[in-house]
Amino acid sequence: MALDLLVKLLESKEVNHIEFCRIKNVLDEIMLMNGNTELSAIQNKLLEPASVVTGLKVDADILIKECRFISKRIGEVISLAGESDQAITSSEYIPKEFFNDMESSWKGRVKRVHAEEEFANVDVAAQALSTAVTEDFLPIIVRVKAVMSSHGSSKGEISYAKEHGAVWFKGRRLAPTVWANTPGEEQIKQLKPAIDSKGRRVGEEWFTTTKVENALARYHEACDNAKGKVLELLRGLSSELQDKTNILVFCSTLLIITKALFGHVSEGLRRGWVLPAIYPLSKFCSQPISTGIKILKRIVKCQDYSTEENSSEMDLLRLFPYWLDTNQGNAILNDVNMRSLFILTGPNGGGKSSMLRSVCAAALLGVCGLMVPAASAVIPHFDSIMLHMKAYDSPADGKSSFQIEMSEIRSLVSRATGRSLVLIDEICRGTETAKGTCIAGSIIERLDDVGCLGIVSTHLHGIFDLPLSLNNTDFKAMGTEVVNGCIQPTWRLMDGICRESLAFQTARKEGMPDLIIKRAEELYLTMSRSNKQTSSTAHHGPSVGYSNVNGLVDMPDGLGNFFEPPSGATGLVRKDVESIVTAICKDKLLDLYNKRSISELVEVVCVTVGPREQPPPSTVGRSSIYIIIRRDNKLYVGQTDDLVGRLGAHRSQEGMQDATILYIIVPGKSVACQLETLLINQLPSKGFKLTNKADGKHRNFGMSVTSGEAMAAH
């Protein structure tokens, strides 16, 4: 529960039984962790961050002692789950809803032993009410049913008037034509109109008797007394625990930190994240790990160092965006070896902003001692991590987007040191190009002089023509490549300068009218010719080619198609599918082998099953992935342990009898599921159309541990 709400409820003595149960659960979980040798060591290390958050210093022994006392006290008063001595009253003739409304607000809150007299009075009053209703109303019901069966005129029933909290008789035309002392007549004579709390008649059909009215009043009084006693006990317990508010706040904070850490490690292991090495390496942080409990131990044991030794280097191997799942195969892995400030260029949609976010997240998680989205990471102990993304205007403050940007970057530059990580996305984008370029160049010079690590991304290519004095800056780019005559981003970090923006293709992709795009291309060609001499001027740093880092020819970037698959994509044949599927599976199996998720590296053999053919007997009882190529060249990707039966089921469907099928035998069901998910997510990017995509959302896969280490079950 929220800490501020907990404190407020205790101070006002309004903690209900649900919150008391939650408090007890928190305390019990802390004591449970303390009872485990491995987990107690982790818990003791987490006392320090809990102290930092709460401002309270609590000794481990005192913490457990207080937890035990408070948990026991709550357990003595509060009725816990599984206790069955406070069932809601029931009666054969009184509606269940009545007793539920009257008793559910106070029963099951506290142990009955603390309010035995009040609970007993309710039981007695409820029995008396049931007796009164049975004696006064039941004979009328029997008579009415008999009359209805013969004449169909009279009508009556015992009903619950929810608005008035009462049980009354509801009926009409009850008086007999001739009074003959038949059964039920005496009770009918006792009926009187039901009245509400203000003395007004409720309606023409509602009746009661003096006996029922008195029994109902006694039952209401007993319920009110019992409810009051329960509230008194709850308020008394709240008052008693007010002196323990600090301990409760500390325990709640400690458990939140513990569960957050557990969730982080669990999800990090599933996603393939790793723990970084923080400068300087400690004896704890340099040891290999393989299990979740060891990761938890290592996280809490890694110390906080502030030395400047090696603080100017950061290595992130196979870094990927934290919001992507590598199991789906759609994350581009990049190696970031940072020894200086990077000036990052690249096309629109090329991944510059994603690179900044990824580096920032990895560094922030790393200096906190948490897992990072990479294969390995060496991170210096930064004194600050500062990220500036695109700025927007603030009408309330009367500032334009450029004013906001300059204000934020001023704060960033003034606080940067040689041990800072500074990340600026698209610097000086909100003002006139020439002056914005010069301001950006001056800011870069300042950061270079400070000697910090960082990335400054930009589309202001004029920066490279400025006479900048740079000693601690490298030029990096997000690459592009030509695929079937189309210019496409690779989303990979490379050395050099990328002057290719892909602006025309991006505009076209987002639906900009072709008329506008074509005119823009004409204007670009005109401008390029007039500035040809300027554009050929030498600039600082290595630049591979004019258009991009891969040496593309000098051409307007609108002449290619952006992200459009080749026109023959729908005509891809079996050999194309086989080649691409084999390559994807080989890479994944090699990755699993390197991670020791599989014991041996198996050969990938893609076998074709033609129309009217069956898989060989060697496939029986073995896990496999299969790809069905339909007549329309759409693909279906699946996995199975019964290939013959599965393909038979597919071929029984209309139009599938002549489909070509490819399959690959793989080591185990879990590997098959991973490859299935990977292929479903990867094949569309290769130009294929799939008929099934749901299995591409699978996230959890089993893993065999082959390192020989015994894993403890907790």
UniProtKB/TrEMBL annotation:
<dbReference type="Pfam" id="PF00488">
    <property type="entry name" value="MutS_V"/>
</dbReference>
<dbReference type="GO" id="GO:0005524">
    <property type="term" value="F:ATP binding"/>
</dbReference>
<dbReference type="Pfam" id="PF01541">
    <property type="entry name" value="GIY-YIG"/>
</dbReference>
<dbReference type="InterPro" id="IPR000305">
    <property type="entry name" value="GIY-YIG_endonuc"/>
</dbReference>
<dbReference type="InterPro" id="IPR027417">
    <property type="entry name" value="P-loop_NTPase"/>
</dbReference>
<feature type="domain" description="DNA mismatch repair proteins mutS family">
    <location>
        <begin position="420"/>
        <end position="436"/>
    </location>
</feature>
<keyword id="KW-0547">Nucleotide-binding</keyword>
<dbReference type="GO" id="GO:0030983">
    <property type="term" value="F:mismatched DNA binding"/>
</dbReference>
<dbReference type="InterPro" id="IPR035901">
    <property type="entry name" value="GIY-YIG_endonuc_sf"/>
</dbReference>
<dbReference type="GO" id="GO:0006298">
    <property type="term" value="P:mismatch repair"/>
</dbReference>
<protein>
    <submittedName>
        <fullName>DNA mismatch repair protein mutS</fullName>
    </submittedName>
</protein>
<dbReference type="InterPro" id="IPR053276">
    <property type="entry name" value="MtDNA_mismatch_repair_MutS"/>
</dbReference>
<dbReference type="InterPro" id="IPR000432">
    <property type="entry name" value="DNA_mismatch_repair_MutS_C"/>
</dbReference>
<keyword id="KW-0238">DNA-binding</keyword>
<keyword id="KW-0067">ATP-binding</keyword>
